[in-house]
Amino acid sequence: MAFGIDKYELNNWKARAKSGEIAIITHYWLDERFPDCDSVTKVACGNYQKLVQWGRAYGLREKWIHERGKLSHFDLFGDHQKRVLLAEGLHGQWKKFIDDEAR
What is the pTM of this model? Predict the structure, then answer.
C-alpha cells in the first residue's frame, strides 16, 4: 500500500519516466514482507538500458529491476535508498519519508 504522495506527484513521475528521464519518487509503503521498512524509493525510466546504466553507477544489479511495461523500475530500501536520495540531491524526499530525526 502506497501513501504520502498525491496523484499529481505520481502522474508527474510516470510522465518523466515514460519520456526517458530517470524519475525518482519516494512514498510511505507498508508490506508485510518488509516489516522494517515504511517507505520505498522507486527509480523508473522508459529507456531500459538507461535505467540499467544508472543503476550500475550505484551498484544496483539489473536483475533487481521490476519490469512493468514502459515503467521498469528499481525499488530501493534502507542503505540503497538513503545513498541514492542524498547523492541525487533529493534531500526533501529523504527528510519527509526516511529521516527519523526530521519526522
Answer: 0.86
